[in-house]
Amino acid sequence: MAKKGNFSSGPTDNPFAAALQHALGGYTPIGEDSSREEGKEEVETDASGLWVHLWIEKKGRAGKTATLLEFQSGTDADIVRWGSLLKTHCGVGGSVHGAEVLLQGDVRSKAEAWLRAQQFKVKRTGG
Question: Would strands 51-57 and 121-124 be described as parallel, antiparallel, or unpaired?
């Protein structure tokens, strides 16, 4: 037997709307406030003129290829942030150890393009 009545699930009828909005950090549905462009995020790197050495390595990695980047300057927090952004941009896993960022696979061209777009000076070393 079907229930009769008005069962709209608009924002005024939802008892959990306030909790959901709080949990999502002030989420505003699309169309309500379209002042910022969706999906476009400006990344501030402060990397103008910083050198990065870029190479691939297979030795000691069970035959698997890894792309390595060595940042010549920058704070540890900056390098961790840049490593995270690089992993996201290239769509791979990896890790950060000191001034060195390891990306899984041969993603030299993607990493180099992203670094150059962020105003880094890139030096490809090795083969």
Answer: parallel
